[in-house]
Amino acid sequence: MTSSSFNDLLTAQIGNEFSASQQYIAIAVWFDNHDLPQLAAHFYQQSVEERNHAMMLVQYRLDRDLGVTIPGVTAPRTEFANVVEPIELALEQEREVTSQIEALFRAARADGDAIGEQAMLWFLKEQVEEVASMSTLVTIAKRAGDNLFDIENFIARETVGDSGQDADAPAAAGGAL
């Protein structure tokens, strides 16, 4: 990532989070279209979570009187050859977001923005959970092979990720969904 200032990267990250939300909707719809309701529900929820992350960054900018620009989003990938592909894409996406948040943290530090640096700590903690849960889901999907009921049962039975509200989470503009 370039050595842009924290402020520039923050605007870009709002778009990245909305793009992640759109990608998760596309994945959820793909699972819905393949009659995998547990996986679809999981990724619909992931989409909402990414939307909330974008709105947390918007609220941060509003609170700091930084002005807000909502960037456009990239078109999501909508076609997959098998059940593992969209989950691997989700893991890749979470790893990319982790790199983006790390760059934001480093930029805030380089800019001498202690408040910005502190704000990114919650997002870094969140990314540890996001990557871990997607890694687990990839492993389960690969182990299940052609038995898609095993993946569906795993999602129904286990808590993958944390869908609850984190009391330490930053406020989202307009309220979290």
Automatic annotation (TrEMBL):
<feature type="binding site">
    <location>
        <position position="53"/>
    </location>
    <ligand>
        <name>Fe cation</name>
    </ligand>
</feature>
<dbReference type="InterPro" id="IPR009040">
    <property type="entry name" value="Ferritin-like_diiron"/>
</dbReference>
<keyword id="KW-0408">Iron</keyword>
<keyword id="KW-0560">Oxidoreductase</keyword>
<keyword id="KW-0409">Iron storage</keyword>
<feature type="domain" description="Ferritin-like diiron">
    <location>
        <begin position="1"/>
        <end position="145"/>
    </location>
</feature>
<dbReference type="GO" id="GO:0006826">
    <property type="term" value="P:iron ion transport"/>
</dbReference>
<keyword id="KW-0479">Metal-binding</keyword>
<dbReference type="GO" id="GO:0006879">
    <property type="term" value="P:intracellular iron ion homeostasis"/>
</dbReference>
<dbReference type="InterPro" id="IPR009078">
    <property type="entry name" value="Ferritin-like_SF"/>
</dbReference>
<dbReference type="InterPro" id="IPR008331">
    <property type="entry name" value="Ferritin_DPS_dom"/>
</dbReference>
<dbReference type="GO" id="GO:0004322">
    <property type="term" value="F:ferroxidase activity"/>
</dbReference>
<protein>
    <recommendedName>
        <fullName>Ferritin</fullName>
    </recommendedName>
</protein>
<dbReference type="InterPro" id="IPR012347">
    <property type="entry name" value="Ferritin-like"/>
</dbReference>
<dbReference type="GO" id="GO:0008198">
    <property type="term" value="F:ferrous iron binding"/>
</dbReference>
<dbReference type="Pfam" id="PF00210">
    <property type="entry name" value="Ferritin"/>
</dbReference>
<dbReference type="GO" id="GO:0008199">
    <property type="term" value="F:ferric iron binding"/>
</dbReference>
<feature type="binding site">
    <location>
        <position position="50"/>
    </location>
    <ligand>
        <name>Fe cation</name>
    </ligand>
</feature>
<feature type="binding site">
    <location>
        <position position="94"/>
    </location>
    <ligand>
        <name>Fe cation</name>
    </ligand>
</feature>
<dbReference type="InterPro" id="IPR001519">
    <property type="entry name" value="Ferritin"/>
</dbReference>
<feature type="binding site">
    <location>
        <position position="127"/>
    </location>
    <ligand>
        <name>Fe cation</name>
    </ligand>
</feature>
<dbReference type="GO" id="GO:0005829">
    <property type="term" value="C:cytosol"/>
</dbReference>
<feature type="binding site">
    <location>
        <position position="17"/>
    </location>
    <ligand>
        <name>Fe cation</name>
    </ligand>
</feature>
<dbReference type="InterPro" id="IPR041719">
    <property type="entry name" value="Ferritin_prok"/>
</dbReference>
